[in-house]
Predict the 3D structure of the following.
Amino acid sequence: MSLKAVLFDFNGVIIKDESIHLQLIDEILVEENLQPQKMSERQASLGRSDVFSFRDATANDNSFGERTCFQELLASRGRVATEEYLTQLLNRKAQAYALELEKLEKLPIYPGVEDLIYQVRSRSISERDSQNLKIGLVSGAIRKEIELVLNRAKLAEYFQVIVSGDDITTSKPKPDGYLLAVERLNQKYPELNLQPQECLAIEDTPAGIQAAKRANMQVVGVANTYPFHMLQRCCNWTVDYLTDLELERVQEVYSQKESQSTVSEC
């Protein structure tokens, strides 16, 4: 088994924008004459709580689908959330998000993102396959927000596929987004013959990690949102920062698995 693709999460892995999201969600709720988020809802929205157990955190993590997040916030306040209504709110939030980013001289991109993308782009799948590793993004954020950030950070050209909240009806921890990314990469590169187990996911929360695991992928957990020790329990690799990730060593593990598989088949 070779490593063929690296799939990034967005919020919490590429950009540190949680405070902006919290602010905008509260503003929209107030504009709708609804109560702002409670502390527990804020934690759930971002997938953060240092006091939850890993299992509890996964169950309460709604950060991976903005539509799901709004839907649950509205339902808890007795507001009927039709799809049309949700779409209107999401569009309003996306417009406000763009305005907030315009105020920033520099986007809060996490350290190591650009370097890791460079490493991925520069590495071949294997000695036998000279194709470079593919790069994708799997997130519950809406596409407008993702593309805005990637374009401004001059990273958009490096992602061969983007699966956003607009593309799927489920949220992490369900694996649909990751499986769709594999499908789209195979459509774009038929010769790749990509299988889920040949992908590496980079995630920062329990729901994202579980989604990738359910898709039969190996996972790097980066401790941007949850403590290192919580992610370490269920990830294949865990790092404090993306700059700590040694992609070469990860590739070696994939190659070893391929060798072991070959031996076992003989």
